[in-house]
């Protein structure tokens, strides 16, 4: 047995060494080839990709030209050309004196956003935050706030694991070992897994992977010895441990198998199935980053994925291509419902060359029967009368809708809703929208009933559900007061529901910059329009940076939207403790479960400063197409150059985070310079 072990060990070592040598050789050849191409390109005087926009390079430090007068203050630069002519060029540049300019306030880099972005909770601390000089972090307790996990496996190691996983299956086949046996070996209680430097975290994920994909069996001594030899040999020669590498085998294999299936079978429903799984019901964008993680599964579209009927392929045995239409075939009885369905289908599918085959899918008839029925003279007369009747019914139906809306508008709209919809207009007491997805009317198990809110247009419940939001019945240009139902419930008008107020006209892109048309349409869609006032970022008179109005503005005018990352309240608590130590924060409560954080991502309104006594604008949370959004509005008429200020709503415990206002400083002349310096450093913008 020992001799067999030695021989097998030598065989394993040889196989692994050969595989690793070939793997490195292929990589080296690729790198050499790319470098040779780049070298030949440079020798021909051409520019390679990364030198396209660069043809000169400064190779000498700048210094004063000794031949020039001191008053001219000329400096000399030597540059070397990358062209085929190897020449040095001397350039003289005269210095220009610049007057002293006050420095800009301190700021932190952030990403500009067009829309709010959903962010998941970051429970794992991936770096130690810098909280500034002189701040003590002993009372911060990062271990209590975050689940600290040190990632020893860096990106290079992960990429090596992925590359080696591609050759692992080939090596296993040469060594006559299956992947399932390898998993059983690592799941065996005798296997020592503590040799890994990051065994705790990665081993837990590895066990979860094994539990999901494999069933553990007990290994006999023979297989255990063989697998132990293979594992030790792999770990000795390869840069990445074996049990880390095999975690990527299934992931890579699944992607490759899926790609092959799609290529070999183009009619497969897998691509469309994954496409529909990731579809956002709010904006119909796949993997939408702007709305919550609520996605809906579309109905099975396998029929739509099938190839359309070919002109020469019959749809069935009794297809019109196999049986002559004039030949007598068994005729089934036509019911009035069948005739009505046939008439409606012919109206839609009459331009399709195989319309009889397509209609046969919806009726329990053959396409020959359908073809003969359609070409019957009596049916053609009925078809003409049927379309006329339908047009009459549609016109009557439209009149009924208009009449119903007029009657409903004569009474208070909110009386038609259940009494338990009282939280619909309270953003602080309601959560983000989660549409109900049950069949039938809403009951005590409905999410909308449990949350005490309206059913929205995204809900699956019937359109005549008593909880369904019906919009407003205002006339054009009248949705600006509390008489409008949408304004009363702190919502913007929905162009799909609010028809009478011309909200669709207001949101038409062709009318976006036409003030004459916008003045005659709905006035309760500013966040959807996205047309705010011009604001300018500049040095604030209160603290740091601020925003200033760039055009004359009247009271109650929409100024702009406060944008940032949408995070949970738990995540805002974790971030808030760090922001409190740094002295800055841009947290803004959005609803019961969500907060907008503009620290990392946002727009200019993140720089709006605090004023308790003299604010000139205010913030309001509105429900816009199923999502809560924050808009800023003017309290009074504003002149060009005024700084936008609003009340942060701080209590006595947090008011010290903002600096004293200019008029407050005049009232307190005894404030020491030390306190002023301390206040100027501890600026916190938390709304």
TrEMBL record:
Record-given protein name: SET domain-containing protein
Entry's Gene Ontology molecular function annotations: chromatin binding; histone H3K27 trimethyltransferase activity
Catalysed conversion reaction: L-lysyl(27)-[histone H3] + 3 S-adenosyl-L-methionine = N(6),N(6),N(6)-trimethyl-L-lysyl(27)-[histone H3] + 3 S-adenosyl-L-homocysteine + 3 H(+)
Keywords: Methyltransferase, S-adenosyl-L-methionine, Transcription, Transcription regulation, Transferase
CXC domain mapped to chain residues: 411-526
Gene Ontology CC terms, in alphabetical order: nucleus
Annotated Basic residues bias: 677-687
Start-end of Basic and acidic residues biased regions: 667-676
CDD domains the record matches: SET_EZH
A biological process term (GO) from this entry: heterochromatin formation
Organism: Pneumocystis jirovecii (strain RU7)
């Amino acid at each position: 047995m020992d001799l067999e072990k030695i021989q097998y060990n030598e065989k394993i070592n040889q196989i692994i060494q050969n595989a690793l040598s070939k793997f490195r050789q292929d990589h080296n050849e690729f790198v050499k080839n790319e470098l040779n191409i780049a070298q030949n390109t440079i020798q021909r005087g051409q520019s390679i990709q990364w030198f396209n926009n660069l043809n000169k390079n400064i190779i000498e430090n700048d210094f004063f030209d000794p031949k020039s007068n001191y008053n001219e203050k000329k400096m000399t630069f030597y540059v070397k050309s990358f062209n085929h002519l190897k020449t040095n060029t001397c350039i003289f540049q005269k210095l220009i004196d610049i007057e002293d300019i006050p420095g800009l306030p301190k700021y932190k880099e952030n990403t500009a956003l067009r829309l709010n972005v959903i962010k998941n909770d970051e429970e794992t601390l991936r770096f130690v935050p810098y909280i500034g000089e002189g701040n003590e972090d002993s009372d911060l307790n990062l271990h209590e706030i975050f689940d600290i996990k040190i990632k020893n496996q860096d990106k290079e190691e992960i990429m090596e694991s992925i590359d080696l996983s591609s050759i692992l299956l080939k090596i296993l086949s040469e060594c006559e070992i299956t992947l399932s046996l390898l998993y059983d070996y690592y799941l065996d209680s005798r296997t020592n897994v503590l040799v890994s430097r990051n065994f705790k975290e990665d081993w837990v994920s590895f066990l979860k992977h094994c539990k999901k994909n494999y069933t553990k069996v007990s290994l006999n001594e023979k297989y255990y010895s063989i697998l132990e030899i293979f594992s030790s040999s792999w770990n000795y020669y390869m840069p990445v441990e074996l049990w880390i590498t095999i975690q990527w085998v299934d992931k890579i294999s699944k992607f490759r198998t899926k790609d092959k299936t799609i290529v070999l079978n183009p009619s497969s429903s897998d691509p469309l199935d994954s496409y529909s799984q990731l579809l956002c019901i709010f904006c119909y964008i796949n993997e939408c980053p702007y709305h919550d993680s609520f996605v809906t599964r579309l109905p099975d579209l396998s029929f739509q994925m099938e190839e359309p009927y070919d002109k020469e392929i019959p749809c069935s045995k009794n297809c019109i291509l196999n049986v002559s239409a004039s030949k007598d075939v068994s005729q089934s009885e036509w019911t009035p419902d069948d005739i009505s369905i046939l008439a409606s289908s012919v109206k839609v599918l009459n331009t399709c060359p195989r319309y009889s085959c397509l209609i046969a899918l919806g009726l329990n008839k053959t396409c020959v029967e359908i073809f003969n029925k359609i070409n019957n003279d009596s049916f053609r007369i009925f078809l003409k009368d049927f379309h006329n009747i339908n047009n009459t019914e549609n016109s009557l139906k439209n009149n009924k809708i208009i009449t119903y809306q007029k009657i409903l508008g004569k009474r208070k709209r909110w009386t038609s809703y259940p009494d338990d919809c009282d939280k619909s207009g309270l953003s602080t007491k309601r959560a983000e929208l989660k549409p109900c997805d049950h069949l039938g009317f809403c009951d005590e198990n409905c999410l909308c009933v449990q949350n005490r809110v309206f059913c929205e247009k995204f809900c699956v419940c019937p359109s005549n559900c008593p909880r369904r939001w019906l919009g407003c019945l205002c006339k054009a240009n009248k949705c600006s007061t509390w008489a409008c139902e949408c304004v009363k419930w702190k919502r913007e008008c929905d162009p799909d529901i609010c028809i009478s107020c011309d909200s669709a006209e207001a949101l038409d892109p062709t009318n976006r910059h036409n003030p004459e048309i916008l003045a005659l349409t709905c006035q309760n869609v500013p966040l959807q329009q996205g047309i705010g006032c011009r604001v300018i970022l500049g040095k604030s008179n209160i603290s740091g940076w601020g925003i200033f109005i760039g055009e004359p503005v009247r009271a109650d005018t929409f100024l702009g939207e406060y944008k940032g990352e949408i995070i949970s309240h738990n995540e805002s608590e974790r971030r808030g403790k760090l922001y409190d130590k740094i002295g800055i924060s841009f947290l803004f409560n959005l609803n019961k479960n969500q907060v907008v954080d503009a620290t990392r991502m946002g727009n200019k309104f993140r720089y709006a400063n605090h004023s308790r006594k003299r604010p000139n604008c205010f913030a309001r949370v509105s429900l816009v197409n199923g999502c809560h959004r924050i808009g800023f509005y003017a309290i009074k008429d504003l002149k060009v150059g005024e700084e936008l200020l609003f009340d942060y709503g701080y209590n006595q415990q947090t008011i010290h985070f903002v600096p004293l206002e200019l008029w407050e400083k005049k009232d307190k002349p005894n404030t020491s310079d030390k306190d002023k310096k301390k206040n100027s450093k501890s600026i916190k913008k938390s709304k």
